[in-house]
Amino acid sequence: MKKKLLLFFLFSWGALNSASAQQFINLWEGTSMKTIEFNHVEFAEYININSQVTGQGFGIPLNVEYKLEVDHQWQVREVYIHFKSKDNFEIRLSRKDDGKWSDSNGEIIDQLEGCTDIDITVTPFTNSLPINRLKLNEGESEEIKVVYIDLPNNKFFPVNQRYSNLGNGLYLYENLDNGYREVILVDQDGFVIFYPDFSHRISKSQY
After folding, report:
1. Rounded to whole angstroms, what are the CA distances from 140 to 126, 131, 136?
2. pTM of this structure
3. How far is C-alpha 67 from the geometric centre of its chain's CA atoms?
4. Using CB atoms within 10 A as the burial measure, which of 13, 16, 68, 162 is most buried?
5. Which residues contact 44 (CB under 8 A, 6 or more apart)?
6. How do the pLDDT tens digits run along the chain, 207 residues long?
7. What span, in angstroms and rounded, lies between the C-alpha atoms of 59 and 9?
8. Four-residue CA torsion sign, 68, 128, 203, 184
């Protein structure tokens, strides 16, 4: 009986401990923008990301809700953004298994062909998508094409970028179209800790 209870306890503890590793909450504070982001990442059939960015940015008060569905290789499947300020709008994008992107009406967006990731201007989180997807070894780099989502201008377009793993959690991010480059620091899960002149993490919880 004691053995059965012990096995039950160990199984239950293992199940709870496993479940606790399936969710993360990141809290970021913006520096170039005076914002706070509450970011929830849940690992289920897919990786589901729900985030709220609130504060002052681009000279206006704003609230941005974004939801992403990502597979377990960190490939984006679904994108939903609701931007609230003096102008309110929504953006919905889907990426199919063949790599084609479509809008909320299911219309294929030829302009985005070849894009593997997304980059949303108000959050450091979307840097985690290519970092976790590429799994670069130290010293390696790779060029990618992303869907750059320009808020608050309600625009999206392809941009060429490069990520280089410098080691010790440091990555060199480069926008190859405009020459911008910055070294960012991420943790062991690929989430941004510090992005100079843009954002820094206040806390991270794991459940």
Report:
1. 20, 12, 6
2. 0.88
3. 10
4. 68
5. 22
6. 444 433 333 344 344 444 444 899 999 999 999 999 999 999 999 999 999 999 999 999 999 999 999 999 999 999 999 999 999 999 999 999 899 999 999 999 999 999 999 999 999 999 999 999 999 999 999 999 999 999 999 999 999 999 999 999 999 999 999 999 999 999 999 999 999 999 999 999 999
7. 55
8. negative
For the record, the structure tokens of 181 come out as 């480059």
Q: Which residues contact 75 (CB under 8 A, 6 or more apart)?
A: 95, 116, 133
d(CA 12, CA 97): 37
Contacts with 31 (C-beta within 8 Å, 6 or more apart), sequence order: 197, 198, 199, 200
- Tell me how far CA of residue 16 lies from CA of 9, 46, 48, 49, in angstroms: 10, 19, 20, 21
- Cβ count near 125 (within 10 Å): 22
Q: Report helix, strand or coil for 197.
A: coil
The residue extents of the domains of the chain are: 23-201
**Residue 12: in which H helix or E strand, if any?**
helix 2-20
